[in-house]
Amino acid sequence: MTLTSFGPANRIQRSAETHPLTWRLRDDGEAVWLDEYQAKNGYAAARKAFADMAADDIVQTVKDSGLKGRGGAGFPTGVKWGLMPKDESITIRYLLCNADEMEPNTWKDRMLMEQLPHLLIEGMLISARALKTYRGYIFLRGEYTTAAKHLNRAVEEAKAAGLLGKNILGSGFDFELFVHTGAGRYICGEETALINSLEGRRANPRSKPPFPAAVGVWGKPTCVNNVETLCNVPAIIADGVDWYKSLARDGSEDMGTKLMGFSGKVKNPGLWELPFGVTGRELFEDYAGGMRDGYKLKCWQPGGAGTGFLLPEHLDAQMYAGGIAKVGTRMGTGLAMAVDDSVNMVSLLRNMEEFFSRESCGFCTPCRDGLPWSVKLLRAIENGEGQAGDIETLLGLVGFLGPGKTFCAHAPGAVEPLGSAIKYFRPEFEAGIAPTRAGDLNQVVTPTMVGA
C-alpha cells in the first residue's frame, strides 16, 4: 500500500513543516532504511530527548502537545503516560505498540510500518525513555508479513547503530525491542486482550481497574499506544508544542495531523496525511476524487467498520473527534468508506455483523449472544423472510449492546453502524419483512419485553 495523493499541487507537496508523519516517504513506495532515515533527520529527536530532556519533561511535552491516541479511542497520550508509576524502585516496566490493525477498511499503520519502520522505532525509543520502560513489544497483526520483515530488519539496524540495546547513546539507558506477531483476532486491538495474548493467554479483555499502567504485562506497569500515535512523538520532541498545535485547522479540538483515507467506489482510493479539521467533503472530493462514473454516494463511514453511517449531507463535518460527534458518530481510525447507491444496506450490515460476531471473544453475554442474534435476524430480512417486530428487536439489541452495557467496546462498535443504517435506511429493512407475517407492526416482541 503506497501513499497516494490527488488534487491541487499545493495540497500534495509533503514537507517536514506540514507532514511530520509522511514527508520522508519515498516516491517509489520502498522502505526508508537507517542511512536514508538518518539523512532525513531521523533519530535527531531521540538524540535531543536523551541529551537535553528529563523523562518528566518528555511526558509533559507530549501532554502539552494535545496528542491523542490514533487507534480509534482518542485518549490523550500524555495523560495516559502520566498514569505510569512514579516510584523509581519499580524497574520492570513495558511499552507495547498496538499494531494489531484489524479494523475493516483500515491500513494506515501498515503503511507506516512497511515504509517508515524507523519512525516507529524512534517514537518507541523516546517513549521508553519518558516512561522508563526497559523492554518494548510491537504486537503486530499476523497477516502483516511485509511489515514484520521490515520491522525486524529495522530493529537489527538500530541495534547495530547503538540506538537499541544497552547504554543507548551513552546515556546509561537500556531498551530492548521485539516484534511479536499475533494469532489473528480482532479483539486483540483492545489493549488488555492484547496483553493477555502477548502472555500466551486467551485474548479476552481484562477487568479494569486495575489498569495496565498499574498491572499490565506479567503483572508489571505497562503502557499501550497505537502505531500512528507513537510515530507522532519524534516530531513533537524535535519541533515543539506550538508548531504541532498549529498544524490543525481552525475549529478543530484535536491537534496535529492525521492519516486519513477513503475507499469504496471512489476515483482515487488512498491514504493521505491531512490536518485535523479538514472536512469530509475535502477528503471525499479533493483527495478521493468523488465517486466513479456511474455511481452515486449513498452513505459513508468516517473511520472504519465500527463507526456509524453518515449521509452525503454530512460531508461538511470537520474530520476530528468532536466534529464527527456533532453529526452523530465517531472519528474512529479516520479511514472512511464510501457506500454507493447499488449496495443493499441489509446485506452490507449482515456481512459486517457476521464479522463482528465471529470476532467476539465470547466473554460477556450481551456480545456473545446478542451479535449472533442480530446476524440471524439480518439474514432473515435479507432473504425476505423477516417477521413483524424484527426491526424493533434489532434496535433493542443496539441499545442492549451499547456503551457501558458490555465488558469492552467491541459490541458497542459492532452495533453502531447497525443502528445508524436502520435510522437512515429503514425502508430497505422493512422491505425484507414477509408480507404474510407483517401483521400489526405495533404488536412486536422486543428484548425488553422478554427480559433479555
- Under the CATH scheme, which architecture of the largest domain would be assigned? 3-Layer(aba) Sandwich
Q: How many individual helices? A: 18
At the fourth level of CATH, the homologous superfamily of the largest domain is: NADH-ubiquinone oxidoreductase 51kDa subunit
Radius of gyration: 23 Å
- Order of strands across the biggest sheet? 3-2-1-4
Largest sheet: 4 strands, parallel
Taken as a percent bin, the fraction of beta residues is 5-15%
Number of E strands: 8
Flag low-confidence runs. Answer: 1-11, 437-445, 448-452
What order do the SSEs take from the amino end to the carboxyl end, as H and E?
Answer: HHHHHEHHEHEHEHHEEHEHEHHHHH
Overall pLDDT: 92
Principal-axis shape: globular
CATH topology of the largest domain: Rossmann fold
- What percent of the residues sit in helical stretches (DSSP H or I)? 40-55%
Domains, number: 3
Estimated structural class: alpha/beta
CATH class label of the largest domain = Alpha Beta
Family: Belongs to the complex I 51 kDa subunit family.
GO molecular function: 4 iron, 4 sulfur cluster binding; FMN binding; metal ion binding; NAD binding; NADH dehydrogenase (ubiquinone) activity; oxidoreductase activity; quinone binding
EC number: 7.1.1.-
Organism: Pseudomonas bijieensis
